[in-house]
Design brief:
The complex is a heterodimer.
Chain A: H1 3-15, H2 28-31, H3 33-57
Helix pairs in contact in A: 1-3
Chain B: H1 2-11, H2 13-34, H3 45-61, H4 63-74, H5 77-83, H6 88-116, H7 125-152, H8 156-172, H9 185-192
Classes of the chains: A mainly alpha, B mainly alpha.
Chain lengths: 58, 193
């Protein structure tokens, strides 16, 4: 739900900053953070680009 | 249109100063204020924290777009664009694009600051670049959300207040500052998705 978590998790993984011995959080989003972020990115753009543009042009 | 906003950065250099100082401040504040008091099991807190600060800072930066749009509307600049028969969607794409440029600067500054406080990236160059792309991509999507808030709000001040209410809930009920496992169940569910 909160994409901030998956972004943070993705960056942590990709920078190699995941602490050792920490339990992996549950939830698909945090376990596949990069994929989830990209899906979220597409979804937000698909919804908000037309919506925001329409609102702005009114 | 993106150029107009970037020129604005050149004309109002204070904006660039704060754009660069804010991420430095965030990294230093959290590392030195929280870093001493909080421990995350199995790691030092700073190592845990840095990625979160990166995410938080690019989110905070996106408030500017909403306030900027609200101000453009209030000042009648949008009406002027309209009378020039400019495509208004260009205004939005320009704004969001200049946000990306802004975020690139912010991310570079934060990386240098983290380096200065002794944080290193422990993976390959490609992976690190992947991390940066994820951050920028995420911030780009967030810019569009904040742009919508800017259009719906009656004025720039309202945008600020409304955005920060949303942003604070999203950044604090997440794994930026604390591991999700430490959150109470409902918040943990929200945070982990």
């Amino acid at each position: 739900m909160d994409d901030v978590s998956s972004v943070t998790q993705a960056v942590r993984q990709l920078f190699g900053n995941i602490p050792l011995h920490t339990s992996t959080p549950e939830g698909w989003a945090v376990q596949h953070p990069a994929t989830y972020t990209l899906v979220w990115f597409m979804a937000i753009l698909i919804v908000f680009v037309p919506l925001t543009t329409r609102q702005f042009c009114r | 249109m993106a150029k107009r906003n970037l020129i604005n950065i050149k004309r109002v250099p204070d904006l660039l100063v704060f754009t660069t100082f804010q991420p430095i401040m965030f990294v230093l504040l959290f590392v030195y204020v929280f870093g001493g008091a909080i421990t995350v099991r199995g790691s030092d807190y700073n190592k845990f924290l840095i990625a979160g600060i990166f995410a938080q800072t690019v989110i905070f930066g996106s408030v500017i777009i909403g306030a900027g749009l609200a101000e453009d509307i209030l000042k009648g600049i949008v009406d002027r664009f309209r009378s020039l028969l400019m495509s208004l969607s260009e205004v939005l794409f320009g704004r969001t694009l200049s946000d990306v440029v802004n975020n690139v600067i912010v991310v570079i500054v934060m990386s240098l600051t983290s380096l200065a406080v002794g944080r290193r990236i422990h993976t390959s160059v490609m992976q690190a670049l992947g991390g940066y792309v994820i951050l920028l991509v995420f911030a780009y999507a967030f810019s569009w959300v904040m742009a919508m808030m800017g259009l719906l709000a009656p004025g720039p001040e309202v945008v600020n207040n409304a955005s920060f209410t949303v942003i604070f809930s999203f950044t604090f009920v997440a794994n930026i500052f604390v591991p999700i496992v430490t959150l109470p169940t409902p918040l943990g569910t929200f945070a982990s998705g």
